[in-house]
Design brief:
63 residues; mainly alpha
């Protein structure tokens, strides 16, 4: 089996699988994206506070 034939077969199988996918609606996509962004910002803020706090604790220990 040649490389071109295998690539063509692979592309056809990928397209067939894409047709089976249930794609989210625009509203579902916007809601999911909003949730991910909010959770990411909250987690970043939390980790920043923890990092600053631990840095201060270590500085006090080392003095």
């Amino acid at each position: 089996m040649g490389v071109v034939t295998r690539l063509r077969e692979f592309a056809q199988e990928v397209l067939a699988e894409f047709r089976k996918v249930t794609w989210p609606s625009r509203d579902e996509l916007i809601n999911s994206t909003s949730i991910v962004i909010v959770v990411t910002v909250v987690l970043a803020f939390f980790l920043g506070v923890v990092d600053i706090s631990l840095t201060k604790v270590v500085e006090r220990i080392l003095r």
